[in-house]
Amino acid sequence: MKKITLPLNKEVAKSLRVGESVLISGDMLVFRDAGHKRLFESIKAGKPDINYAGETIYFMGPCPAKPGQVLGSCGPTTSGRMDKYTPYMFDTGLAAQIGKGKRSLECVQAIKRNGGVYFAAIGGAGATYSACVTKAEVLCYSDLGTEAIRRITVKDFPAIVAIDSLGGNIYER
Amino acid sequence: MKIADLNLLEQKIAEAIEDIACNMESSCLAALQKAREKEDNPTARFALDVMCENAEIAAKRGFPVCQDTGMAVVFLYVGRELKLNGDIYEAVNNGVRRGYKTLRKSVLDPVTRVNTGDNAPAVIHTRIVSGDKIRVEIMLKGFGSENMSKVYMLNPAQGMEEAKRLIIESVAIAGSNPCPPVIVGVGLGGTLEKACELSKHALFRKLGSHNPDPELDKLEEYLLNEINKLGVGAQGFGGKTTALGVFIEKYPTHISSLPVAVNMLCHCSRAASFEV
């Protein structure tokens, strides 16, 4: 299986093809519905709370950690709910997203236009993904609990290339 | 008159939640393993491999199967020979608060979006039955699948043909979102809310079991076959298994209508039943 490292190099992003299975290692940002909503309020106010240029965002809200865990169970959530935020984020430098499920046409076009990539993690596999996390910290919005923005470090995180930089889309095959 | 032990009810609810969050229902895991064996689409096979491996890691290490440990849905069957010296709903919700201590708190106010902080309250359905016990059916319901629910108020001329078409279509529309292979619960008849309740309750059936009503049993088999021809497959990656099972419940309805509700479970059913 192809191993890739974050932050995602532009050339690597462009070489990935829909349907490929990959093992991802490195740092990623984690947030979901409420984190996006609040970040966009800060962008609108002209003072973004975080810089996501070059980053990979994983749509996820973890369980609390149990003894022996860096982070609790942490599989992907449904990406489609973040579709409305996605084109702007790719247009302003986001490298990749990880989530589960199909995306809107606008998202596919934004990924293509910017040479990005969308990975599908395996929904429901929370325990498997927890075992991949080697480091986790809350960056902001800690009052949102599970929906806070985090940075996590992962090793050999299994995923599928679901939308590639040519616009190839696993959900439309 | 026997007095219900509400403290025991609370404790057993808490224990059940901790247990089922980490242990996928056994008939569900068996069905998933079977789907993996017969899958020849490599991407779907990869997804099924990860799902089965995940269930093993979760059970072995005591980690939740999925980070969406859901909202608790509880059906209470209260024996009419019991005396309730206290608030049975409060006992259930206290059990939920205790059971979710180490799990994700996903329950919040729908308008303000402020989290309740303890995953209470549960959604509780109560039925009064014979006997002097309380039987509990509890499910941790994830919302990737819940969001894909559908309800249709058909007219009698549309009938069961249209109902069948819409049930199959609802799984196609849901696509990859409910973490397929899904388990499909269908409620036919009653009123709007009765059809929905039936569709939820149907999801407590074990995979591999037959519907006691032969006509519904045949209908379940037909729908499962048709749904598995959709090609949505595991995680929406294509392949042979889009659904692991279809379960139907029905209730008499009005001459003017045919309510049809569809509720889905993801591939990790987390449910239990017990008596107090």
Task: Profile the largest sheet of chain B.
Answer: 4 strands, mixed
In angstroms, what separates the terminal alpha carbons of chain B? 16 Å
- Sheet/helix structural class of chain A: alpha/beta
In quaternary terms, these chains amount to: heterodimer
Q: What string, H for helix and E for strand, traces the elements of chain A in order?
A: EHEHEHEHEHEE
Account of the protein in words:
The complex is a heterodimer of chains A (173) and B (276). Chain A has 173 residues and is α/β, with parallel strands linked by helices. Chain A has one domain: Fe-S hydro-lyase, tartrate dehydratase beta-type, catalytic domain (fumarase). Chain A is built from five helices and seven strands; from the N terminus they run E-H-E-H-E-H-E-H-E-H-E-E. Chain A has helices at residues 10-15, 33-44, 86-91, 105-114, 126-130; strands at residues 2-5, 21-30, 56-58, 96-99, 117-120, 133-140, 149-163. A five-stranded mixed barrel of chain A has the order 2-3-4-5-7. In chain A, strand 2 (21-30), helix 2 (33-44) and strand 3 form a beta-alpha-beta unit. The radius of gyration of chain A is 15 Å and the shape is globular. The relative contact order of chain A is 0.24. With 276 residues, chain B is α/β, with parallel strands linked by helices. Chain B has two domains: 2-20 and 65-141, Dihydrodipicolinate Reductase, domain 2 (2-Layer Sandwich); 144-268, no CATH class. Chain B is built from eight helices and ten strands. Chain B has helices at residues 6-22, 26-38, 42-61, 88-99, 143-146, 159-174, 192-202, 214-228; strands spanning 2-3, 71-79, 82-83, 123-129, 134-141, 150-154, 182-189, 243-251, 258-265, 271-275. In chain B, strands 4-2-5-10 form a four-stranded mixed β-sheet. A four-stranded mixed β-sheet of chain B has the order 6-9-7-8. In chain B, strands 1-3 form a two-stranded parallel ribbon. The mean pLDDT of chain B is 96. Chain A binds chain B through residues 19, 21, 34, 60-64, 66, 68-69, 72-75, 77-78, 80, 100-102, 120, 122-128, 130-131, 145-146, 158, 160, 170-171, 173, and chain B through 22, 43, 46-47, 50-51, 53-55, 57-58, 61-69, 102-106, 113, 115, 117, 144, 147, 175-177, 179, 235-238, 266-268.
